[in-house]
Amino acid sequence: MDLIAYILLGVIQGIFEWLPISSQGISVVILTNMFNVAAQTAIDMSIFLHIGTLLAAILYFWKDIKELIIKTKYNDILRFNKNLRFDYTTNISRFILISVFFTLLIGVPIYFLVKHNINAYQVSVLTVVIGIFLLITGLLQVKINKAKETIPKFSNSDAFFVGGAQGLSVIPGISRSGITTSMLLFQGHNPENAFKYSFLISIPTILIAECGILILNGFTFSPLILVSIVFAFIFGYLTIDILMKISKHIDFTYFCFILGIAYILIGLL
């Protein structure tokens, strides 16, 4: 892979991270099909690229993050008394904490299962599988569009489902933003808050995931990956606002279906 390839990966991550069409799936397909990168390495690289968009999300949501840090009552956040009423900020922080816990509980085993078995399949099969999961993501969004609006509660059970859904996004082809936003919409959040909470939950999750890959997995760090991270950050920060606004008004179901079918055809052919 040359410099242009790393720049391309960074741009793709920066733009598509905010859209419910799986930036990780797109990166894995490109790495394995265009650059002949081993599937295991492609998964780690696609996850590592999230550092750039992680920094962009932190900068974009800094006011919300700062408010949560300052106003959260940390003495109450770990209490599990059902009769205890939390203030709004503490309730959100607690919701995020529990969601991240269940993401790791479900996502970590899936990550190792996928990574250690993925080379047992040909790249063409992997591409088809990613396409199938994109079709599933599209079907999920169809279901979401028909869901009735309810009042969001930020309950422990809601956090479990959001965290579990985010854990499933470790599988290439399942959009993290798509599946978590869909789950939040199911729980009654309006589109703006669903997008915001989806990315607030992703920040600590991705940070822990990156550290885990470096410490436990022995991921070989390439200086050129910094180029991808920088471009992911630049394009991520420049596009997050406009793409989040577009996402509220455009049905990305068709994009998931088109990409899913395209990946399946690429794999079969």
Topology overview:
Elements (H helix, E strand, L loop, with lengths): L2 H14 L6 H12 L4 H10 L1 H11 L1 H10 L16 H30 L5 H23 L10 H13 L7 H11 L4 H26 L8 H25 L3 H16 L1
Helix pairs in contact: 1-2, 1-11, 2-3, 2-7, 4-10, 4-11, 5-6, 6-8, 6-10, 7-9, 7-12, 8-9, 9-10
Report on the structure:
The protein is mainly alpha-helical and 269 residues long. The protein has one domain. The chain is 75% helix and 0% strand. The protein has helices at 3-16, 23-34, 39-48, 50-60, 62-71, 88-117, 123-145, 156-168, 176-186, 191-216, 225-249, 253-268. The longest helix is centred in the middle third of the chain and has 30 residues, at 88-117. It is globular and about 55 Å long. The two termini are 24 Å apart.
Total domains: 1
The proportion of strand residues reads under 5%
Tally of strands: 0
Quaternary structure: single chain
User: Order of SSEs, N→C?
Assistant: HHHHHHHHHHHH
Rg? 18 Å
Overall shape: it is: globular
- Structural class label: mainly alpha
Summarize the structure.
The protein has 269 residues and is mostly helical.
